[in-house]
Amino acid sequence: MPSGVGPVLCVVGARPNYMKMAPLLRAIKSRSDLPSAVLVHTGQHYDFELNDRLFIDLALPAPDVNLEVGSGSHALQTAEVMKRFEPVIDQYRPSCVVVVGDVNSTLACSLVASKKHVPVVHVEAGLRSFDRSMPEEINRVLTDQIASLLYTTERSAHANLAREGIVGDDRVHFVGNLMIDSLLSALPKAVSAIDVLGREGLNVEWASEKPGYAAITLHRPSNVDDAETLSSVVAILGEVAARMPVIWPIHPRTRANIEKFGLAGQMNGSRIACLPPQGYLQMVGLMRDAALVLTDSGGIQEETTALGIPCLTMRRNTERPITVDEGTNTLVGADRQHILAVVDDVICTGGKRGRIPEYWDGRAAPRIADHMAHWLASLDGVGANQ
Question: How far is CA 265 from CA 227, 247, 274, in A?
Fold first, then answer.
């Protein structure tokens, strides 16, 4: 790329962003026909287990810029990211800003870039849950409207974008899933469930016994912020644990609410191994070795589909329908009977296996980098949304 061309600002803010950005950053840096890449971390996640450790596991370089925003309400966090990101735009005068996913940082940095007439590239565009009560849905919809270039992980996203007036081969491109790039790269280094439990000083004998274990991740407010709801969730997990052992790396938000609502005693004596938050390589190993995964995470729906592991999603909807239609995912909400029926099916038959979706092949990052090189070369000073 000719000298004087501004760098590509790559923005991360929360755990799922890191897994998506790591392979893309490597792909950008590997090409001489792309500008230099500058990694900006907003600081939306700042817990060591959810932040620094993931950078290490993903071989993601230390951020060039850390905005250190921290926690707060959605409005406060979004506003603070915008306020701190604007001087970064002024300093680096980037050729474009790359955002991934649907967190507050994604929307905040897109808004700033757009108002500064810097093209926005949205990776993982077009996903929709059609549930406007989810803050992430608002972030997705607005970011896609702002973005100059939209990269999609599944073809259904194109129909979603078209309904919102976003069309054109020059703007929307199907490239595959960066999350799967990171997953496939991590598999040879993944830490086994037995090793994860052993390092926590827990009994590991049952981890390799039939019918296997269930791995749990829960963090969404709809599941963990209400005392009655969380109490019901913990009771359901206790019933799952009566059928198969449960390994539960507990998110800081969830653990705080378990303690706040006095629910820790409900898990005493059950076969629920409660762990602190785990690194990426540990979580990949826990998912890979599990008989099933029960979650409310978007990314884990994709990772379990790629791994061929049955996934029970404790939500009423998903922005990743391909994981249900083609993959291993089943939406179970908080329906006790449905959850236990699917668990019993996994024990008896092995459960839903599905197939790996198109372009989830570990090559999404090179496809994006290749297209970006041609796109940036064609811009020739054209502003955002052109």
Answer: 14, 17, 12
DSSP sequence for 284-313: HHHHHT-SEEEE--HHHHHHHHHHT--EEE
Structure tokens at 71: 């926690």
Query: Which residues, at least 6 apart from 70, have a Cβ–Cβ distance to it below 8 Å?
Result: 43, 44, 46, 77
Identify whether the C-beta of residue 323 lies closer than 8 Å to the C-beta of residue 137: no
Which of the residues 219, 251, 338, 374 is marked catalytic? 219
* pTM (2 d.p.): 0.93
Which of 356, 223, 347 has the alpha carbon at shortest distance from 292?
347
In this structure, what token pair is assigned to residue 198? 């052993």
Q: How many residues does the chain have?
A: 386
Catalytic annotation present for 173: no
Task: Pick the closest to residue 309 from 353, 273, 362, 277 (CA basis).
Answer: 353
Under DSSP, is residue 335 helix (H, G, I), strand (E, B) or coil?
Answer: coil
Per-residue pLDDT of the chain (386 residues; tens, 9 = 90+): 444 589 999 999 988 899 999 999 999 999 999 999 999 999 876 655 556 778 888 888 889 999 999 888 899 999 999 999 999 999 999 999 999 999 999 999 999 999 999 999 999 999 999 999 999 999 999 999 999 999 999 999 999 999 999 998 899 999 999 999 999 999 999 999 999 998 888 866 766 778 899 999 999 999 999 999 999 999 999 999 999 999 999 998 899 999 999 998 888 766 899 999 999 999 999 999 999 999 999 999 999 999 999 999 999 999 999 999 999 999 999 999 999 999 999 999 999 999 999 999 999 999 999 999 999 999 864 444 43
